[in-house]
Amino acid sequence: MIEEERSKNHLLLAKELEKVLHDSNGHSSKHLVSNPVPWHQFPEPPKDKETGLPLLDVKRFDLTWEHIILSETIFDILNEVVLENRKQDILAAYGLKPKNKLLFCGLPGCGKTQTAKVLSSVLGLPLVYVNLTAVFSSFLGETATNLQKIFTYVERDEWVVLFDEFDAIARDRNTPNEHGEVKRLVNSLLQLIDTTTSQSLFIAATNHESLLDSAVWRRFDEVILFEPPTLELRIALLKRYLAAIRYPGIDLAPFAAQIENATGADVERICADAIKMVILRGDNILTVTDLEAAIGRYLQRERIISNSTDFSTDSGHGERV
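RESULT FIELD:
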């Protein structure tokens, strides 16, 4: 049954069955799914003292590598990380530890958060998403206390822990005008990272890696840069997101070439717009005109954003070019 479910990519179910099998045979070794919590029941998350908001959100995902398109370089690194975390017992026998602290850098929409979700699924572990909106408190020192609460919660079991927008809590301490609270927060964060004994996989994601404190980088086993997809990957993304509809005879390569700077999220939006055009006119076949219209809408959106950014930059100098 385990092998059958695994062949169907029902990884979470396969690993739960595997745990039952090993437990019944009296084995005490660490399994891929060590978290005994039922599917949607987890310990109550810690909350911010001032607002009462939960500091984190815990979810499970049923995803596979097929749910994300990555460069071969990134895919190889992540596969290595997964293998090491699955074989923690073997590494421990040689006095070694798996890579369990990853830093994801790159532009928004390039797949950082989605990759964290896929990793949690592949490893069969819940994803702990840290809510930075709730972590920051107006009370002096309370933000560092909230971080401590998060790490204490994480120590209770094994998870994939995602700190999104990591630059918000790991900002460079030497930045001019940075107040003392930020420096204390970064110091607390570094100490918590260094002293944690959790076997969880920690992932920090940022769109602004240049803002990170220099001491933060050394805490990570792997730093992965998510760049805008290449032409080959854009073609693959178009195929992925257009899979729900027929488009006979359409060569996607020229369209992929038109959206050179598009991220994965941009390609998904383009495809969704094109498919909606087809559905709303009562048809079931995508045409070249549909795809051209959707790409035209994307390019117009990018021009608006670019012009707005240019105006914002130039207005700081008192003039507009």
